Amino acid sequence: ASSQPPGPSSSQVAVSSPSPSPSSPVPSASPLPRAVLETRLAATLDRVRVKLAIPGVSATIIFPDGSSWTGVSGLADIGGEVPVSPNTPFAVASMSKTFTAAEILSLVDEGRLRLSDSAARLVPPGLPIKLDPRITIAMLLDHTSGLADYFLNPKIDPALQRAPTRIWSAADALRFVGKRLSPPGATFHYANTNYLLLGLIAENVSGRPLADEIRRRFLDPLGLATTWYQAVEDDRATPAHGYRLPGTKLTVKPIDLADGTGVTPFRSVVTAAGGAGSIAATSGD
Predict the structure, then answer these.
(1) 31-38 long-range CB contacts below 8 Å, 24 or more apart?
(2) Any residues with CB less than 8 A from the CB of 17 and at least 6 apart, and which?
């Protein structure tokens, strides 16, 4: 038995017909009949959600033949008893970095930027951080800049939660960057700081907001209809609420972080993330 709030099982699924890519070989038939496979996937999703005490989840698998399966389990909004559906978007957090990196590499392809360029020369002026001129675009991309992660500063979380509906600027967030962790290029340290800066550099070089560039280059051409840059673009659908779990036991009650703005988990943390983590999407997208 689960202590989680009651919710639908992942028997609610969406299945697409095959649309194989010409470059993707179609494998031999699955050893399991498709219906059996989907039943097992749904049961696995339910079991894992309960085991990890996740309020709600959506998962999409795209098979080698181009067909897909989407399963859902649990609730998108516990208080409102709203079940997760195949069309429920979630905040995808650091998966957003994929889009920021793709934007930077597109600018490199166009000759407007080089991976060896000094980041200090490309960030907008007036930021409350002094970058070592040896830090390159490549080092920001692969987290070898040596910069500390501002989200790991213990002082930032109380500041974010004190006014969850506030819109943070990049300057607000960068004030929480601590001392460097290593010389540029010396070692790997994952840091949201790198991708917040990359987003600013992309805007500075392109002359356009990062959200606009991501939509123009990727979201619209790829038909990602339920993916958007939160707190900048309008919601494409009602996203699942974000929750804080104050412990690891199944009996803990998830704390709803919704601030009433529709930005999930809440607006201050999403705007502080910028190019490091502002996108929401369905699992299918």
Answers:
(1) 38/13, 38/69, 38/71
(2) 67
**Tens digits of residue pLDDT in 112-125:** 999 999 999 999 99
Q: 180-198: b or e for each residue (b if 16 or more CB lie within 10 Å)? A: beeebeeeebebbbbbbbb
Enter the DSSP assignment of 222. Answer: T
What is the residue whose two structure tokens read 């036991």?
249
Contacts 24+ apart (CB under 8 A), 46-54: 46/9, 46/10, 46/73, 49/4, 49/10, 49/73, 49/74, 50/2, 50/4, 50/250, 53/3, 53/4, 53/245, 53/248, 53/249, 53/250, 53/252, 53/254, 54/4
Gap between the Cα atoms of 76 and 88, Å rounded: 8
pTM: 0.88
Angle between helices 96-109 and 192-206 (to 10 degrees): 40
